[in-house]
Amino acid sequence: MKFSIKRASLKSLREKRSACLKELEVMKFSIPDISLEELNKNEKELRKKAESLWEGYKFYTDKVEGLKKQASSFFNRIFDREKVERLNKDINSFSILADDYFKKYTDMQDRVLRTQDLYIKRRPYEEKLSFLHDLEKEIVIRENAENKRLRERNKMAENTRQVREIAEDVKAKLLKNKYCPYCGRLINYNGYAHADHIYPIDKGGQSTIENMVYVCSDCNLKKGNMTLGNFIRKYNLDRNYIETQLINLNKDF
User: Fold this and answer.
1) Model-level pTM greater than 0.70?
2) Which DSSP string do the residues of 214-251 spell out, in sequence order?
């Protein structure tokens, strides 16, 4: 199954990076020390030279064939013997040139094939390098995001701690209302009264007299970190009653 960088966990990405680095360390001892870009450039230049040499070879072989035809037409004519000898000398000269071009051409073709072989050997290494680069890039993105979330959590935790510390001071100043503004039951202040943040702390609510109110322990535990609206909907409470009670107590909601 193909490894998906985008879907993998940060832990998997780090493990894959470690494995990739080890593979590259082993591979580098058996590959040519030249990039694919350079090999590709070299191959193009060699092919161009090979084509030029082939054109030279074809030029001289065509020349030889033409001279052989001329020599054949003059061979049986006694008075053209000298001309035939001159043609044969030219044929020999051009044949030598054609052979030389062909030898250079075959040598050049061998160099092209060797370059292709180097390319094939180098390619898996460069693909692995590219994969490693993508891994590193994704890891940096994930680590930055993780660090950002951690900073935000720490900041929120610090804010929550401070808000809760302030809440203890505010709680001492709250008016002790006789009835729970949420359910209407009588509040027992002998260990059963809770001071609720009407707008929850973890959603940005502050410890102020306007945002805190005494409620019965049952309502406070049920409400938890829900907003007032969600709490009313979940437990099918009387919104008009609750809002009236909070307004009378000078609370914000």
Assistant:
1) no
2) EEEHHHHHHHTT--HHHHHHHHT--HHHHHHHHHHTT-
